[in-house]
Amino acid sequence: MLFLMLVFFSNLYLNSATDPEYYVILYGGQANQGFVQFINGSDSHFLCYDGWDERDAAVVCRMLGYTSDGVAAVLNITTFFTEEMWSYQFDCVGNETSLRSCPVVEVNVTECANQGASGVICSNNPIPDDFFLLSFGTSIARLDRSYESLTLIQTDSTRKIIAIDYDPIEQSVIWTDVNLKQIAKCNLNGGQKTIIFQSGSDSVMDGLAVDSWSRLIFYTDTGYDEIGVINADTFIRTVLVSSSLEEPRKIVFDPYTREIFWTDWGANATIERAKYDGSDREVIVNTGLIWPNSLILDGDILYWCDASLDKIERIYRNGTGRTEIYSSGLAHCFDFLLLDGYFYCNDWGLLNIVKLSMDRNETSPYGPGLGRRYGIAHYRKGGMYFN
């Protein structure tokens, strides 16, 4: 009877309305497998392998946007420091949507640290269908939109990743690496890395946009002061604009009108547009700008964030109706996007992604706080393939 009482009282629920959110990060050689890091508010821990099983792994995989079919609970034999291990272990039924719903059992952290940490193998089929892609400089992560948990896609073969996008036709992640001077791609699980374009020593390719319909990859290069396009299938490259550019950065496109739009944060900062072949170039905004880092095209409206003025503004693509949306809540917006009435911003001055409502009534952190991020992209099955 005493044993049963001890078991009963050691199975605790650590979730309440005031508890911080739970997130997981998956580290491994492939995006769908590795060891689990658990984030509880501002604290992060590894999880003890003692008692870890497929039921717990199923919940973790679900939080990462995978299905719970065919999951495996695995042991990572790396020895961890005692202070890195969580003093509890989850005891899930297996049908929970989040670890937050699972009871926990106390564990001996010293024994756990010597054993190793809990890991999972998730099924990568079907692929997740609603997610963000984030670049962290030396790594790329996929963030599940429902549970705001992450799995790393690329870590070992990158140096400084800035811009990032997704090709849903090939199911490929595409990025620029300004240290390796490359545009490269891999599949969503991190494999089949391919160099699309190797540039020269002065190259700094800060901007990238993939028109998957037309099979075109647009990029900006602030080192060579040019805007170019690469065929996504043949890798043939064409320079579109190479004059009167200072610091071109963000680039977006309209596949219907076949126009590109970009920001230039040089001494004479501008927002401009041109046709897909570089013709009919036109300045849209050339006043009241300092560092227009990022740009969004939503129908006939362009939105941009200025990292020096800490503002979000909008204007119609014909140059009329300029309006300030936000002048507070940001510290250094590097990249952002618009999704379902909210801006999601990678801000260098804040640990979390910033979520801002278009109606200016709501600003909140989104996802775990993970330090400096660069590019951000989003994909949802059945959604539009351009920002």
UniProtKB/TrEMBL annotation:
The keyword Cell membrane does not apply. Disulfide bonds join 48-112, 61-122, 92-102. Residues 1-17 form the signal peptide. GO terms for cellular component: membrane. It is a single-pass membrane protein. Keywords: Disulfide bond, EGF-like domain, Glycoprotein, Lipoprotein, Membrane, Receptor, Repeat, Signal, Transmembrane, Transmembrane helix. Residues 24-123 form the SRCR domain. The keyword Methyltransferase does not apply. It is found in: Membrane. LDL-receptor class B repeats lie at residues 258-301. SUPFAM superfamilies: SRCR-like, YWTD domain. PANTHER family: LDL RECEPTOR RELATED PROTEIN 4, VITELLOGENIN RECEPTOR-LIKE PROTEIN-RELATED-RELATED. This is Low-density lipoprotein receptor-related protein 6. It comes from Mizuhopecten yessoensis (Japanese scallop).
